[in-house]
Specification:
Blueprint lengths: L2 H20 L5 E7 L15 E7 L6 E10 L4 E15 L3 E13 L5 E16 L2 E12 L5 E13 L2 E10 L4 E13 L2 E10 L4 E11 L1
Antiparallel strand pairs: 1-2, 1-12, 2-3, 3-4, 4-5, 5-6, 6-7, 7-8, 8-9, 9-10, 10-11, 11-12
């Protein structure tokens, strides 16, 4: 076993231990068994089976903290970890928050590590009681690499009975990628729902879908 793999396995153990120890201090958490891996950029979702997870403090507070990540199923190795904090700037019917991604850690199958920092701006407004329109802007920049990007997404979140539908349009300035994505969540039980995701990236004509089973902790 190479040194990088030993380090990553220890790092994975630390992350899982952190999830267990911090769950009691957090207000939400979920684990998803999925045919794909999480990414804020729909076109960059991993197409292989992943365990996706998220844990965080109450988003209704002035300041909130969040940990989002994916672990590859085939060898139980971490793929991405995102440490995110947000500050509410406006908290009325119209909501706006600013946030920082400090850091984002991306780990290849060869256990090479890339790190990024990011800033985000979120805005949302309820069109109706069960229909919410939102906007997300993320600027990301590599720390040990030369990647830099700007991502804009416009999202519509609609609740219909046991279905939650999230429609998304996005634009990424890197490689001029843009497209649309649709997420469908179906509530199976109080803390379990089935999730389907489909994405189409227009310039590359890339169409793919992902399915997962999500458990709220």
């Amino acid at each position: 076993m190479g040194l990088n793999k030993i380090i990553m396995n220890k790092y994975l153990f630390f992350v899982l231990l952190l999830l267990v120890l911090t769950k009691s201090y957090c207000q939400y958490g979920n684990i998803e068994l999925s045919s794909g891996g999480f990414s804020f950029i729909p076109a960059f979702m991993d197409r292989n089976p992943n365990i996706n997870f998220a844990i965080g403090t109450n988003s209704k507070k002035l300041i909130s903290g969040h940990l989002i990540g994916s672990i590859r199923m085939k060898n139980i190795s971490p793929r991405i970890l995102i440490f995110n904090s947000r500050l509410k700037a406006i908290d009325k019917k119209f909501k706006m928050s600013i946030g920082a991604h400090l850091p984002v850690i991306q780990i290849s199958e060869e256990y090479m590590v890339d790190t990024f920092i990011g800033q985000e701006l979120r805005m949302s407004y309820p069109i109706t009681e069960k229909n919410n329109l939102s906007f997300l802007y993320i600027h990301g920049k590599g720390r040990n690499n030369d990647l830099e990007f700007n991502l804009i997404t416009i999202n519509n979140n609609r609740q219909i009975g046991k279905f939650n539908l999230v429609s998304q349009l996005y634009f990424l300035d890197k490689d001029k990628l843009y497209g649309g994505a649709q997420t469908v969540n179906f509530k199976l039980k109080e803390k379990m729902h089935l999730k389907g995701f489909i994405n189409y990236t227009v310039p590359t004509k890339d169409l793919f879908s992902i399915i997962g089973l999500n458990f709220n902790l």
